[in-house]
Amino acid sequence: MKFGRVLTTAMVAGVLALTPAAAFAGSQLVGGGIWNYGTSSGAIYSHYLHNTQCHGASVHNGKLYRVTNIKPGVWAKVHAKDWPMRVDHAYWHTCA
């Protein structure tokens, strides 16, 4: 199983001074698919699309939220509350 992650670690020093409405987002071509991740409107999210393999996405905000075994060509989407002053994690994976 291929697996990837990014840490949205308080979005690098300056975010601590921003309001809770501050957002962070990224998009990458990884593992043969497209991965969108970030925080927005008080939520952390991970969206992953792979057109030829089973795949999934996860977020961790102190608790793990995961979707897996998503068929090729369908977005795997997961969202959870973005807790202030906590490190959030976003992940993607393809099935073995």
Explain how this protein is built.
Keywords: Signal. The chain is mostly beta strands and 96 residues long. It has a single domain (3-8, 24-94), classed as Sandwich (Immunoglobulin-like). Helix content is 0%, strand content 56%. The strands form 2 sheets. The protein has a 4-stranded antiparallel β-sheet, with no helix packed on it. A 4-stranded antiparallel β-sheet has the order 2-3-4-7, with no helix packed on it. The model is unreliable at 7-21 (pLDDT under 50).
Question: Notable features of this structure?
Answer:
0% helix; Lactococcin 972 family bacteriocin; four-stranded antiparallel beta sheet; 96 residues; Lactococcin_972
Structural topology:
Elements: E1 3-8, E2 24-30, E3 33-40, E4 43-49, E5 55-60, E6 64-70, E7 76-81, E8 88-94
Antiparallel strand pairs: 1-8, 2-3, 3-4, 4-7, 5-6, 5-8
Architecture, according to CATH?
Sandwich
Helix amount, in percent? Answer: under 10%
- The N- and C-terminal alpha carbons lie at a distance of 4 Å
- Number of extended strands: 8
The biggest beta sheet is recorded as:
4 strands, antiparallel
* Tally of alpha and pi helices: 0
Q: Identify the overall geometry.
A: elongated
What number of domains?
Answer: 1
Order of helices and strands, N to C?
EEEEEEEE
Detail the poorly predicted runs: 7-21
The largest sheet has its strands arranged as 1-8-5-6
Protein name: Lactococcin 972 family bacteriocin
Signal peptide: 1-25
Organism: Cellulosimicrobium funkei
Pfam families: Lactococcin_972 (PF09683)
